[in-house]
Amino acid sequence: MGNSKTRVAPNQTEERWVRFEKHGDEESRNWLLERYLPIVHSTAARLCAKLPSSVEQDDLVSAGTFGLIGAINAFDLRRGVKFETYCARRIRGAMLDELRTMDWVPRLVRERAHRLGETAQAMEARLGRRCTQEELARAMKMSMGEFRKLQRHIRAASPVSLSRKWFETDSNRDVCQADLMADKRTCDPMPAVLRSEIREFVTNSLGRTERLVATLYYFEGMTMKEISEVLGLSEGRICQIHASILSHLSVQLG
Prior knowledge:
With 254 residues, the protein is mainly α. Strands 1-2 form a two-stranded antiparallel ribbon. It folds into three domains: 10-102, RNA polymerase sigma factor, region 2, helix turn helix motif (Rna Polymerase Sigma Factor, Chain: A), CATH 1.10.1740; 107-161; 190-253, Winged helix-like DNA-binding domain superfamily/Winged helix DNA-binding domain (Arc Repressor Mutant, subunit A, Orthogonal Bundle). 18% of the residues are buried. 68% of the residues lie in helices and 3% in strands. It contains eleven helices and two strands; from the N terminus they run αααααααββαααα.
């Protein structure tokens, strides 16, 4: 839903902004949040394409949503700046702040990996052959247990190219990393069908607040507490809305 492009009349958007700036009402804020959520999704997709696979796009979307909310609350119509331009910086900044807190590769692991590589190169140049793990561990002044643990950390922190060549067959075709990976994707179509039905239900059968709760919980992966902070409602109220959504969904799906 966040990636869909809904045509909204400029006058309607302007009216919502005026109303929100004057009254600060929850309905207008939720309307504006839903109106500009596609910017969060597109920004997260562009940023995630440049990052390691260990970074989840949903984490960036969650951070960007908070950035969008902050932009809505702080925006001043009198500045004469387009909100899309203003919020794009806030959304991207919130995502970058989230990335800084992830620290998926500790600095110590990077330093030891670099030192291990330099040690291996120096020993191979001196010995004229590849050194063994035991020789490397002694040179690094580490026990074999510590050495193997370091290797596991380095492997976990090192991206692997799917196009890396493993060997060449008789037909001169290179066998790459991707060819050796098992395809664990399921062929069961039911989850996709059910998800499609739920999306249709969320789009057509719920009110604006219920639709936001369902979207943030089921499709953005946010917790009830996070949603309560986003929408400015108590966590208990969000749970009540969620229970109402499940009741409606049960009736809708029979």
